[in-house]
TrEMBL record, chain A:
<keyword id="KW-0496">Mitochondrion</keyword>
<feature type="domain" description="TrmE-type G">
    <location>
        <begin position="243"/>
        <end position="421"/>
    </location>
</feature>
<comment type="similarity">
    <text>Belongs to the TRAFAC class TrmE-Era-EngA-EngB-Septin-like GTPase superfamily. TrmE GTPase family.</text>
</comment>
<dbReference type="GO" id="GO:0005525">
    <property type="term" value="F:GTP binding"/>
</dbReference>
<dbReference type="InterPro" id="IPR004520">
    <property type="entry name" value="GTPase_MnmE"/>
</dbReference>
<dbReference type="Pfam" id="PF10396">
    <property type="entry name" value="TrmE_N"/>
</dbReference>
<keyword id="KW-0378">Hydrolase</keyword>
<dbReference type="GO" id="GO:0030488">
    <property type="term" value="P:tRNA methylation"/>
</dbReference>
<comment type="function">
    <text>GTPase component of the GTPBP3-MTO1 complex that catalyzes the 5-taurinomethyluridine (taum(5)U) modification at the 34th wobble position (U34) of mitochondrial tRNAs (mt-tRNAs), which plays a role in mt-tRNA decoding and mitochondrial translation. Taum(5)U formation on mammalian mt-tRNA requires the presence of both GTPBP3-mediated GTPase activity and MTO1 catalytic activity.</text>
</comment>
From TrEMBL, chain B:
<dbReference type="Pfam" id="PF13932">
    <property type="entry name" value="SAM_GIDA_C"/>
</dbReference>
<dbReference type="InterPro" id="IPR026904">
    <property type="entry name" value="MnmG_C"/>
</dbReference>
<dbReference type="GO" id="GO:0050660">
    <property type="term" value="F:flavin adenine dinucleotide binding"/>
</dbReference>
<protein>
    <recommendedName>
        <fullName>5-taurinomethyluridine-[tRNA] synthase subunit MTO1, mitochondrial</fullName>
    </recommendedName>
</protein>
<keyword id="KW-0285">Flavoprotein</keyword>
<dbReference type="Pfam" id="PF01134">
    <property type="entry name" value="GIDA"/>
</dbReference>
<dbReference type="InterPro" id="IPR036188">
    <property type="entry name" value="FAD/NAD-bd_sf"/>
</dbReference>
<keyword id="KW-0274">FAD</keyword>
<dbReference type="GO" id="GO:0005829">
    <property type="term" value="C:cytosol"/>
</dbReference>
Length: 499, 688
């Protein structure tokens, strides 16, 4: 009988079950901004999950629920402060007739950043709601069987793009004081968990005294205070500027600052023929073809003994890592005259400039090559090289241009704008408010879990430890995961385990 | 009943002569298990329980079930494993109840999820129990001898793997034994060498001959498996009469011993006959002797990875100098005149060992019966195994125990049970199964081994189990016994019926508790001990009241004798269930998500490097190297991206299996569609 029982667990059927079953983890309700930025007068905030109706009532009041799948004009207010955030259209999509198959709601509000972050904040303050993880809406739709085969094809790439955008956004957010703060909390919490775990797994051993737990009690209480203060601090850390983050990078004296000046049509950066003129990051806000862009010029990348320039190079590399799009500037006069040698030359160049951490393939997708100083090349070489580059698919889009004469600028602007329009269509790139909402949600999770530690500290240490573990998981969603092995490493570092 | 079994040595007791007589002839069985330690005995027993004709090959029948290191069983994390092995009808728990001479629950004050049932054992009794069980087991034959090599042939093209193991050749007689599955549990005997002072000798355990080097060669050169090297050690054994126990601190057992097994009525040892342990501390003199003898201690100078827990006294004082370190003196048995100094494993020359011991006041006149020594041995990198513990590249070959890089009797037994189940099922053409890490410590152990590999001897800790509040020692029967009977086929009807009765009793009692509802005021009148807060509003169920720290089920039962009286036998388990239920409910969601991902098997022979799916080169290489068995395992790999998981999910759900089979072998797949899924997947998770 065991054999016949087993056959129904064949992989094919199991996967079929999953394909057609209810959405995974259906009990959480998620929300996210699902429209792009720039050029959009209307922002769409989408909610999905069982608490969607609650969200709708919370933000628009208990009366007059909108008819299913019909636009209704409502005042949208913060459920706690009752402050009016905006007046906009709301939609109610009861499951299963919705994009995700779950109960869903949409808020179509004015596209300004203040309104959007107000709505996101308001949703985050409701019980049972949390910001969506990368690709979560589409994943739910996928699991509900709501996507056709062709849509599924593109889904992986979409999630990939969202994850990447979030990662870069997080990197930007994490640069600076906030990062230091989260890292510090994460370290202290990891230490707390390690010590509780040591007490549980090795408490019968020598040299792990009850004192260990008293230290944990103090740390947990301290962390709770700090997290509450942080959550109630109106300043919310550094104000992050919206926009697609475009970084100009390359070797010294390739003409990076000239490109910046060309793009903003004013001498924002000092240019000179001396290599190493730009030593710090020069930032400027631009509107390129209607898209908000935060353009940064960076120090030329080269080995240097100069301490100031070294720091400039370090900052430049950091910027490139955080960028949504990198313009790699190359001095065209250095190009080999034989076009066949050009790809190898440019490949080596890209390797030197782009970060390797996420994989080169990934970096290449977020890059445009700018071959500057074309005015110094013979006309026929320019033409030959451009033709060759246009049909070389192994390289990122490349434009030959002269910052000096503006020759080739039009061609470059076309490829830049096409990249920007696809980046701006991605609702996650460059929206600090969404990241902030996510951080707040995870910090809140962390705070509540620490309460579980205190509640069970003297009743059941396994349940108390569970609280610290959940707190670390919450924080880990911001700072990165902490695994069981790391906990064990701390245990063996701090205690002599003898038995 | 136990006593009768031990006394009436049954017929199959070691008639190795009949095997030896037929030297050079070829015989056959379903499963061969090589090795008679904790992994081997459980594997052999489990394979026979599943229904396979099994042969256990061991160097000496006499040492089957020997406790070669510490005379104890269980502990924090390890105790959970013992309970789970027992829930799958293994031997270890019952053997512990039969042989235990000092029972205690560790972590009693820290919450039932992390309680650690533990016992000191009488060595001969433990051995006798295991031998009596095995030697009377139907379908199991035990033979003395050592295996010289594995017989390897062309693989079955329908299944993953480069080779197929078809049996073994014995060392001395050259006799060939064919089998559909072979389980290797050779412990530290794989290229083992013993260290003491500056001398080194081949072997896996002092007093036993080294195994032939043929097996090592079979694994490394013929099958091409990656091996690593680890080290461990054991302390000297001290004559009890030479110890001044008045200078040691007495450690008493629990007054009411708790048995390991779900089906033991009690422990064999009477509560009042239990033996104590003793606690002593090291002195600065101990550290001095260690430092002075370092140049004479080649084991310590080697850089082979040893365990960070259970370290030698040398590593303890070197890593944490200037401190006192605890040493437990543990009884070796009821009639033994020896003490086992837990925490003093050492590898210096024997005269220095005596000098070191005598630096401790209670051991000032200590005499040793046998010196401590170190062992270095080969292990097979366990990432080369399927979750069924079958070697990925060698069909029919299963590995369990220290050969997979673990340490400890309990870890070995846990793998043994599962390797035995898998080997038996394979021999009987039943599909392989896997245990989820969301359901058992055995699942955590195997998933960690095959999914992540090891860098030091692997020992179980409760902190390794994400869902530890659900995987408790008290509920191992509910988690495993029912499945063990219905799906796995390794549990006897008697044990199954007991588990069914328990499950029904607990759920009836829980609904009875939920049905009793009173206002807080009424609760305060009815049960003043409960200290129900006056500020509490609404009505409360008896289940909620049972969650209070000072409320026991017995109290509730005396307040409501008619309704709750019938369930008093489940009192302790009900209290625990009530405590944990809200948390387990929360965990269930996460567990269900993981189980869903784990129910999606990834084909094992797929070529990730050329798979027509959008994956980055890094992810392709990672998948190619690790070859996760399920989507769940893939998503736990460091370096996996959500997008890659989705692409894989899409690939599995979209690609019909026939195409996938075709991708891995160029020969057309002759299997008919309805049957193919059974063989093309390495493991099917045990149903929920």
């Amino acid at each position: 009988t065991a054999a016949s029982a087993r056959t129904q667990f064949s992989g094919a059927r199991a996967s079929h079950r999953l394909w057609s079953s209810a959405p995974l983890c259906a009990t959480d309700t998620i929300f996210a901004l699902s429209s792009g930025q720039g050029k959009c007068g209307v922002a769409v905030v989408r909610v999905s999950g069982p608490a969607s109706a609650l969200a709708l009532r919370g933000l628009t009041g208990p009366d007059r629920p909108p008819a299913p799948r019909t636009a209704a004009l409502r005042s949208i207010f913060h459920p706690q402060s009752k402050e009016i955030l905006d007046r906009g259209l709301v939609f109610w999509f009861p499951g299963p007739h919705s994009f995700t198959g779950e109960d869903s709601a949409e808020f179509h509000v004015h596209g300004g950043p203040a309104v959007v972050s107000g709505v996101l904040d308001a949703l985050g303050s409701l019980p049972g709601l949390r910001p969506a993880e990368a690709g979560e809406f589409t994943r739910r739709a996928f699991h509900a069987g709501k996507l056709g085969l062709t849509e599924v094809e593109g889904l992986g790439d979409l999630i990939h793009a969202e994850t990447e955008a979030q990662r870069r956004q997080a990197l930007r957010q994490m640069a600076g004081d906030l990062a230091q703060l989260y890292r510090d909390w994460s370290q202290r919490l990891t230490q707390c968990l390690a010590h509780v775990e040591a007490f549980i797994d090795f408490g019968e051993d020598d040299l792990i005294e009850d004192g260990v737990l008293d230290q944990v009690d103090n740390s947990v209480a301290q962390l709770q205070t700090e997290i509450t203060c942080h959550l109630h601090d109106g300043r919310k850390g550094e104000r992050l500027r919206s926009g697609v983050q475009v970084v100009i990078a390359g070797e010294t004296n390739a003409g990076k600052s000239s490109l910046l000046n060309l793009l903003c049509r004013r001498p924002a950066a000092i240019v000179s023929p001396i290599a190493g003129t730009t030593r710090d990051v020069v930032e400027t806000c631009l509107d390129i073809g209607g898209f908000p862009v935060l353009l940064s010029d960076t120090a030329g990348l080269r080995e240097t003994a100069d301490a100031v320039e070294q720091e400039g190079v370090r900052r430049a590399r950091e910027k490139v890592e955080q960028a949504d799009l990198t313009l790699v500037v190359v001095d065209a006069t250095q190009l080999p005259t034989d076009p066949l040698q050009v790809p190898v030359f440019l490949g080596a160049h890209l390797l030197a400039v782009l970060p390797h951490g996420v994989g080169l393939e990934e970096s290449l997708r977020h890059c445009i090559l700018v071959l500057n100083k074309s005015d110094l090349l013979p006309v026929e070489q320019v033409e030959k090289t451009q033709t060759f580059l246009n049909k070389n698919p192994g390289l990122p889009p490349a434009s030959l241009l002269s910052c000096h004469t503006s020759h080739g600028l039009e061609n470059f602007m076309t490829s830049l704008q096409s990249r920007l329009s696809s980046l701006c269509g991605d609702p996650l790139a460059g929206t600090p408010s969404l990241t902030q909402a996510r951080h707040r949600a995870h910090l809140h999770e962390c705070f509540q879990a620490l309460g579980q530690y205190q509640q069970y500290r003297d009743v059941d240490l396994a349940l108390a430890a569970e609280g610290v573990r959940l707190a670390l998981t919450g924080l880990g969603r911001i700072t990165g995961k902490v695994g069981a092995e790391e906990i064990l490493d701390i245990i063996f570092r701090d205690f002599c385990i003898g038995k | 009943m136990l006593a009768r079994r031990v006394l009436n040595r049954p017929r199959s007791l070691a008639s190795p002569s009949s095997w030896a007589a037929s030297a050079r002839t070829v015989t056959a069985c379903d499963v061969i298990v090589v090795g008679g330690g904790h992994a081997g005995t459980e594997a052999a027993a489990a394979a026979t329980r599943v229904g396979a004709e099994t042969l256990l090959v061991t160097q000496k029948i006499q040492t089957i079930g020997a406790l070669s290191c510490n005379p104890s069983l269980g502990g924090v994390g390890k105790g959970q494993l013992v309970r789970e092995v027992d829930a799958l009808d293994g031997l270890m728990g019952r053997a512990g109840d039969w042989a235990g001479v000092h029972f205690s629950i560790l972590n009693r004050s820290k919450g039932p999820a992390v309680w650690g049932p533990r016992a000191q054992l009488d060595r001969p009794r433990y051995r006798q129990f295991i031998q009596a069980e095995l030697l009377s087991m139907p379908r199991l034959t035990v033979v003395e001898g050592s295996v010289e090599e594995l017989l390897v042939s062309e693989p079955d093209p329908e299944k993953p793997g480069k080779h197929r193991v078809t049996g073994v050749r014995m060392a001395d007689t050259g006799r060939i034994i064919l089998a559909r599955s072979v389980v290797l549990t050779t412990g530290t005997f794989l290229s083992g060498s013993l260290f003491m002072g500056q001398t080194t000798s081949p072997g896996g355990r002092m007093g036993d001959p080294p195994s032939g080097s043929g097996l090592s060669r079979s694994l490394k050169e013929v099958l091409g498996l990656r091996l690593g090297r680890l080290r461990t050690g054991t302390p000297p054994r001290i004559f009890k009469r030479s110890v001044d126990l008045s200078l040691a601190q007495l450690q008493l057992p629990d007054q009411r011993p708790t048995p390991f097994s779900f089906i033991s009525n009690g422990t064999h040892c009477k509560p009042e006959e239990q033996l104590p342990c003793y606690l002593i501390n090291t002195t600065p003199g101990v550290e001095r002797v260690v430092r002075e003898s370092l140049h004479l201690n080649s084991h310590i100078q080697q850089d082979t990875r040893g365990p960070r827990y259970c370290p030698s006294i040398e590593s303890r004082v070197l890593r944490f100098p200037g401190r006192q370190h605890q040493v437990w003196l543990e009884p070796e048995g009821l009639t033994s005149d020896l003490l086992y100094p837990q925490g003093l494993s050492m590898t210096m020359p024997p005269d220095l060992q005596v000098r070191l011991l005598r630096e401790i006041p209670a051991l000032r006149k200590a005499e040793i019966q046998a010196p401590g020594y170190g062992v270095q041995y080969d292990f097979v990198c366990p990432t080369q195994l399927f979750p069924s513990l079958e070697v990925r590249s060698a069909q029919g070959l299963f590995l369990a125990g220290q050969i997979n890089g673990t340490t400890g009797y309990e870890e070995a037994a846990a793998q043994g049970v599962w390797a035995g189940v898998s080997a038996g099922r394979r021999a009987l053409s039943l599909p392989p199964l896997s245990l989820s890490r969301t359901q058992s410590y055995i699942g955590v152990l195997i998933d960690d081994l095959v999914g992540r590999g090891i860098t030091e001897p692997y020992r179980m800790f409760t902190s390794r189990a994400e869902f530890r509040t659900s995987l408790r020692p008290d509920n191992a029967d509910l988690r495993l016994t029912l499945k063990g009977y219905c799906d796995i086929g390794c549990v006897s009807p008697r044990r199954y019926e007991e588990a069914v009765r328990m499950k029904a009793g607990l759920s009836e009692a829980l609904s009875a508790l939920q049905d009793i509802t009173l206002s807080p005021t009424r609760w305060r009148e009815k049960l003043p001990q409960a200290a129900v807060s006056a500020n509490k509003s609404g009505i409360m169920s008896a289940e909620e009241v049972l969650q209070y720290k000072d409320v026991s089920f017995e109290m509730l039962a005396s307040a409501f004798p008619d309704v709750l009286g019938p369930y008093v036998e489940f009192a302790e388990r009900l209290k625990i269930e009530a405590m944990y239920r809200p948390h387990c409910e929360k965990q269930r969601r996460e567990i269900e998500r993981i189980l869903q991902e784990e129910s999606l098997s990834l084909p094992q022979d797929v070529d990730y490097l050329s798979l027509p799916v959008s994956l980055s080169q890094e992810v392709r290489e990672l998948l190619d190297r690790v070859r996760p068995a399920t989507l769940g395992a893939a998503s736990r790999l460091p370096g996996m991206t959500p997008a890659a998981i989705l692409h894989l999910l899409n690939y599995i759900t979209r690609t019909p299996q026939r195409d996938r089979s075709a991708e891995r072998s160029s020969t057309p797949d002759p299997q008919n569609l309805s049957d193919e899924s059974r063989d093309s997947f390495p493991c099917v998770p045990v149903s929920q």
